[in-house]
Design brief:
Distance between the termini: 38 Å
Structural class: alpha+beta
Number of domains: 2
Strand content: 5-15%
Amino acid sequence: MNKSQNIIDSVLAILRGAQHEAVDFPQPPSTHRRRGFGEGNASLAPQKLAEIEDEPETASTATKPDGSTQPFASIGPRGHRGRMRQRLLTHGAATLADYELLEMLLFFAFKTGDTKPLAKSLINRFGSFAGLLCAPTDQLLTNAGLGPHSVVALKLVQDAAIRLARAEVMDTPILNNWDRLMDYLTAMLSREKIEQFRILFLDPRNRLIADEAQARGTVDHTPVYPREVVKRALELHATALILVHNHPSGDPTPSRADIEMTGEIKDAARVLGVVVHDHVIVGNGRWLSFRREGLLT
């Protein structure tokens, strides 16, 4: 397996909820609001951006007043940042714990200061690094003590992981790459708080033409209209479909309505020569295939 694939697998493991050994990290005082890069820093009093300069990352010694030297020029957060960067560049991100990955992401939002306490408290609050990445933007902005720069960094990582997973299923026969498809759907849907119904439109070789959200609903219901599904398939010249929706409860067991709706779409599509290969329900860390469960007959 090549280096690029290792990186993809590591990011997908994070979004699936992979965690290191649980640690009971102390929570910071709730009255302290940590703000983004343009607004302050992680542990020091706010100051003008022009006054904040990153310390050089070169190894050096510090000179004492008497002219002698000491081993470390800095033992504070800035020196720590340089060591963390060097560790990642030398040994790779796989050597970092989830809170350390988050800590380094926050470097881009907080120009100076110690971001480790904030990283640990955020993982405590949202249950995991994956839970934090998938949390709604408004919740992060209003309740987590993060500024816009921090939230943008987190959301960029989440979307990058989803795009990497999507790239793995593009231009290849999906039915022959089922595990990769499940990685993609899990990364995209497993932690969504609102139910959504998506359709994978396939060409005659079962390659992905498009992945589209057909409808979004509430926490337990999404209205779907077979006529609209088939109409869109014809517009894209798709010859096959895979239906997908999530259950925010985390349990992928299909409801009676799920089964009936699948039958209606299958019947409508068959009239126009479009095949429904499967209907996948994604829960939290679990998924269910109608075809594998014998529910597509």
